[in-house]
Every structure is written in C-alpha cells, then in structure tokens.
Amino acid sequence: MKKLAIILPCYNEEEILPHTIKKMRALLSDLIKRKKVAKDSRICFVNDGSRDQTWPIIQKACAEDKLFCALNLSRNFGHQGAILAGMYDVCADIYVTIDADLQDNPDCIAQMLEKIEEGCDIVYGVRDSRHTDSFFKRTSATLYYRLLKLLGVNIVYNHADFRMMTRRAVETLKQFPERNLFLRAIVPLIGFKSARVYYDRTARQAGETKYPFCKMVALAWNGVSNFSIVPLRLVTFLGFFVCFLSVVFLCFVVYRWSVRGTIVGWASMVTIITVFSGVQLVSLGIIGEYLAKVFVEVKKRPLFIVEDKIGFNEESQDC
Ligand code: UDP
Ligand code: MG
Prior knowledge:
The chain contains 11 helices and 8 strands. The protein is of the alpha/beta class. It has 2 domains: 4-227 and 302-317, Spore Coat Polysaccharide Biosynthesis Protein SpsA, Chain A; 230-299. Strands 7-5-6-4-1-2-3-8 form an 8-stranded mixed β-sheet, with helices on both faces. Strand 1, helix 1 and strand 2 form a beta-alpha-beta unit. The protein binds uridine-5'-diphosphate and magnesium ion.
C-alpha cells in the first residue's frame, strides 16, 4: 500500500485550522481504514511564516495525533514555496497539495487515488464552476486563462494548486530549478500520464483570503512572463509598427509642406512625442521585467528555508 502525504500550506489560518484539522484527520483515518493508503500516511502542515496562532495550533495537533506532521518555514515564502517545501521535505509515495481553507473539496482525494491506481502520475483538481467567486475574480480568471492559452502557455483550465502527484513526478519536478514559481504551469511541463478530477469549489468558511489583489497580479504576471516570450516579441512588432507609422507620417508632412507649406503647430508634435515616449517606456518596462527575472534566477536563492520540523521520524527522513 502506498504512503500518502497531504500537504497544506498555511499562512495566518488560525480561524479555519481547527475545522481543517478535524476534517483532514477524519478523511485520512477513513482512507487508512478502507486500506486505500498505507498506515504511515501523513497530513503535513507547512507554516509559511504566520504571525497569528497558526503554528501553536499546528504544534498542538501534532502532539495529539501521529497522523500529523509539520514544517515551520523561517519566514513567509509565499504559497508556491510552501507547497514545494512540503513536497520536497516529506517522504511519501503519493503527494496531494490542498489549501488549508479546504475550499477545494478534500473528498476528491479518494477519486484522485483511483486515478493514480490506474497508472497516472499527476491528477489535477479542476473546479467545475466558479459561482462562489466574486464577479471580478470569476471574470478576471476566465480572461486570464484565455490570455495564457493565446500566449502559448500550457495550463489546465480552472486548475489551481489542488493536485496529486506520485513520487516520480515530484522527483522530476525537482529538475525545474526555477525561482519564479508558477507551479500550475510548470507541472504540465513534466509530462507523464495525467487525469482530471472535477469538483465544486466552496466559499471560504473562516478567515480571509491571503491572496490580496497585488499578490494575485504578481502571480498572474509570473504565469505570463515565466512561460511566454510573446510580450517581448510584441515589443519588437510594436517597434516595427511605430516605424511604419512614422514613415506614413513623414510622407504626410512632406505632402502638406509641398501643397500648403509647413504647418507650425505644437499639438501634433506634442501628441506624437507623448505617444512614442509612452510606447518606448512600456517597451523598456517589458524588457526590464524579463531582465529582472534573469536577475532573480541567477542568484538561485532558496525557495524555502525550514526552521523546525515536527512529527518526522528518522525512517521517513531518508526518502
Ligand atoms: N498561503 C501561504 N502563503 C502565503 C499566502 C497563502 O501558504 O503567502 C496559503 C493559505 O494559507 C492557503 C493557500 O495558500 O492555504 C491559498 O490561500 P487563500 O485561500 O487565501 O487564496 P484564495 O483561495 O483566496 O485564492
Ligand atoms: Mg482559499
């Protein structure tokens, strides 16, 4: 029987954690009882530098039940880093990552296990609908997935970070040494046989989102710039287009000069200067964004630093 590790990244989740602990304990106990997974399967909380009571709550749960183990990161590394910490530091045969607020239906884990049994290495949890999201989130997400597709980024529509992976897939993921993380687009690059499991995403039961607008935009931009060079190409095309426009404009100026003499007007000049300066600055900005990515990548700083570990016995350390 295979050992399952359920990884839950947690950042300031004190309100929801007691409920999550109860639900996940019941779920894993049931899977073990039904002999779907090995007895030493674990639920691993990754505390991503929380400032509230999240870590003490996790410590208490680990002390009370051997089903739980935990990693405490030295500071906040972000959702993607926390997920990686769990997958890279826990030893198991199968990994599933799920948000600590359980908005993604954990009951799908049994279904995901069946897909792994059938020979898949990756199972994507995919939202059936987005009716619990706000209008803004729903529309922006749909447009964003469309944009990624247009830019040639291979991404599973409506899949976030609820996914199951075999150890083989996780080991392969380690060959992607990227610092700018956007796992939902990296994982499909692994290949292997994959499947999808559909579920209804519920609203958050307690606490508030840890993905405010600016973090969401940063993650979205990572999705575009980590996987597509189309924006850079657009800059080149824009350059050609602007050159073409200036030639047309030049012809127009020569024509006006020959017909009615030179027009002395500042309005047209100012308009042209502003438009072209804008285009140049935006182009420089896009190039700068990619340069910044290279800057971050070459330094190869750690994606996460584990400060404490609870509930790891020696045999599970050498995976
Ligand atoms: N999270 C994290 N580090 C962060 C931000 C979020 O580990 O810096 C975790 C958070 O605790 C949750 C998951 O990532 O388990 C997803 O966050 P959230 O539910 O707030 O995102 P949303 O569902 O609103 O997109
Ligand atoms: Mg959530």
